[in-house]
Prior knowledge:
Layout: E1 5-11, H1 17-30, E2 35-39, H2 46-50, E3 59-60, E4 65-69, H3 72-90, H4 112-127, E5 133-137, H5 141-176, H6 181-187, H7 189-209, E6 214-220, H8 224-239, E7 244-252, E8 269-273, H9 282-291, H10 293-297
Parallel strand pairs: 1-5, 1-6, 2-4, 2-5, 6-7, 7-8
Antiparallel strand pairs: 3-4
Helix pairs in contact: 3-4, 4-5, 5-7
Amino acid sequence: MSRATNIFFMGKGGVGKSTSAALHSLFLAGKGYRVILVSLDPAHNQCDIFERRFSDKPCKVTSNLFVIEVDQERWIKTYLKDVQQQINKAYAYLTAFNLESHFKVIKHSPGLEEYAVLLAYKHIRNVYADFDFLVFDMPPTALSLKFFSLPSLSLIWLDHLLNLRREIIKKRDLITKIKLIKKEYERDKLLNKINEQQQDYQYLKKGFETMDMTRIHLVLNPDKLAHAESVRILDRLVELDIKVSRIICNKLQAGLSCAKIKKFEEIPQINFPASLIPLIGINALRQFLKENSNAATKQL
């Protein structure tokens, strides 16, 4: 099955990340590619940019461009429901202890937002794999970096769980004097689930690290705060073996540039000037792309 190329737009709040994602999506669609623009940012600025209401169902904007607005709360509930079902399935023999009363605590667990965003991403990636491009307007920096870190961190945690589960099985075997260890491994539901999750996160991690599958477009403005946050984003992605494919220097005024940052020198850079009019509505977006066709073409 063919896989859509995933393009993630990241950057400090206010640099024009959502507008850049909208422009890029519209440009690709205009070239004949089938594109879904996905708003993962809780602010959901795409509805303001396109002057349309969006939902978790693809909304057709042009013949080749669709927009989805992810409901984070819905995916948090989906994640919590999945956790509860897994616990019920794995520990069905403990229902007499009324474990259900403790499930309410799970919704207060840290890290739910990034798991919800990752769950939404996996769903969209699988359901809309036949599109050419999936463009993601990412949430604020902290949540975006946690999103990209999650597969690596989860694999470390799952590796420890796997070793712990194997030790439990060995001790259980000694206690019960069961010597059919191979069959015991095959029957253990928790061990099987951990193995499944490992494979899932390994696939996600590899996908994030492969530029053919994942492209990161880092949007910034020519000011110190945007530069500083962009450097932190780049440093963290490097730690995760995730490459930035484009630097988009946005809202440029005459005489200003983003090229002075050494860490950005080897990354292809696209410069867009500050727009003289608000980039609201599809006509304004198309006009801006027409006026900056040379820069827009470099996005391919």
